[in-house]
Amino acid sequence: MRAGNDDEGLRVYRSPGARDAIRASDAMMLEPVQLWLAADDEGLTDEQGRELGERFYATLYTALADDYRMVEEAGPETLRFEVALTSAEAADVKRDLITKAVAPARILSTAASKISGEPMFQGSATIEAKLSDASTGEVWVASIDRRVGGNAINTETLQSWGDVYNIMDLWAAAIRYKLCSARAAKTCEKP
Fold it and tell me: Where does the pLDDT of residue 43 fall: very low under 50, low under 70, confident under 90, or very high at 90 and above?
């Protein structure tokens, strides 16, 4: 794996034959989202983990179904997409809202973020993803990415998991865009 560019994950692997394999495929086998959370992950119950996994799966399925025939079994010209949520942290909604809305709090939050390298009180998530040939298992693309919530105030950020939902939506749109671009389709929408 190499370090990703600005429009890629943090770490990326791409097989030399990936573009041709993606162009030749018309079907997608999306595996259920796995949760590989550390035992010391605080604040995420089993139920919340299941809910996040199911929501991310539904978001990915909807995005990919626009371009692929979605299947449940391996076959010719079929890609298998596997993704694992390896960390998810809810935002501290009250403190996050204050740091977004009140200028002195925003200045302090920004200063603390520069020191720690992480925005204060915002939700975050990390994934590992792999795209492979569904029949042979040959890995075409793999990526690791981590995202932290933004500074916008909207209905999602008023929920403790709102930042994580927004991150999952961004990943689904970015994955669809990357696959669309690899196929050289003319209808690709950059997230």
Answer: low
Please say whether the beta carbons of 91 and 157 come within 8 A: yes
pLDDT band at 151 (very low <50, low <70, confident <90, very high): very low
Q: Identify the CATH number of the domain in which residue 136 sits.
A: 3.30.160
Reduce the DSSP state of residue 154 to 3 states and report it: coil
Q: What is the pTM of this model?
A: 0.75
Using CA atoms, how far apart are residues 156 and 28, in angstroms rounded to an integer? 29
Residue 50 in domain = yes
Examine residue 104 and state whether it is found in any structural domain, yes or no: no
Ramachandran region, residue 137 (left: φ > 0; alpha: ψ -120 to 50; beta: rest) = left
CA distances from 40 to 37, 43, 88 (A): 8, 9, 12
Q: How many domains does the chain have?
A: 1
Query: Between the ranges 106-110, 146-150, 169-173, where is the mean pLDDT highest?
Result: 169-173
Residue 174 · residue 11 · CB < 8 Å: no
The range of the structural domain enclosing residue 176 comes to 2-90+122-146+162-182
Which pLDDT does position 42 carry in this prediction? 57
